[in-house]
Amino acid sequence: MKIKTKFGDLYVFNVYLPCDTANNDNLHEFIDVLSVITSCLETNKVEFCLIFGDMNTDLSRVFSGNTISLKLFVEKENLNFVIQEFPNNILFTFTGINNNHSLIDHCIISQNLIKN
């Protein structure tokens, strides 16, 4: 979605990314979705960007293909995870059937939105 503001166009993406699995079953689909967002950002020369939703990967999973891909995407596109820029008390956003917790819902913004 594109929202016109006095500073320029703000592109907003609400995502539901494929689940993170131990053997990276959904990694190709995960990367495909990120590629679609990259294409949109490049095609429209997006300055202001907000991506939020269920990204289905916890940033603490350092060996997860999904987590690695998401972090690379954020770095390549000059974006930032809101939770890293504005620390808070949110410990988890998902509770599994075994009462395990993870933080899999994220908000990612362009760097220029942090400054403004």
> Assembly type of the shown chains?
single chain
Quick one: CATH class? Alpha Beta
CATH superfamily: Endonuclease/exonuclease/phosphatase
| Major sheet attributes | 5 strands, mixed
Provide the residue-averaged pLDDT: 86
Helix/strand-derived category reads: alpha+beta
Report the radius of gyration as a whole number of Å.
15 Å
Strand content: 25-35%
Kindly give the count of domains.
1
Q: What is the end-to-end distance? A: 20 Å
Q: What are the salient characteristics of this protein?
A:
alpha+beta; 7 strands; single chain; Deoxyribonuclease I, Chain A; 4 helices; 116 residues; two-stranded antiparallel sheet; five-stranded mixed beta sheet
Short description:
The protein is an alpha+beta fold and 116 residues long. The chain contains 4 helices and 7 strands. A hairpin with a 2-residue loop joins strand 1 (2-5) and strand 2.
Describe this structure in words.
- This protein has 116 residues and is of the alpha+beta class.
- The chain has one domain (2-115): Endonuclease/exonuclease/phosphatase (Deoxyribonuclease I, Chain A, 4-Layer Sandwich), CATH 3.60.10.
- It has 4 helices and 7 strands.
- The strands form 2 sheets. It has a 5-stranded mixed sheet. The chain has a two-stranded antiparallel ribbon with strand order 5-6.
- A hairpin with a 5-residue loop joins strand 5 and strand 6 (101-102).
- Helix 1 (27-43) packs parallel to helix 2 (65-76).
- The radius of gyration is 15 Å and the shape is globular.
- 17% of the residues are buried.
- The mean pLDDT is 86.
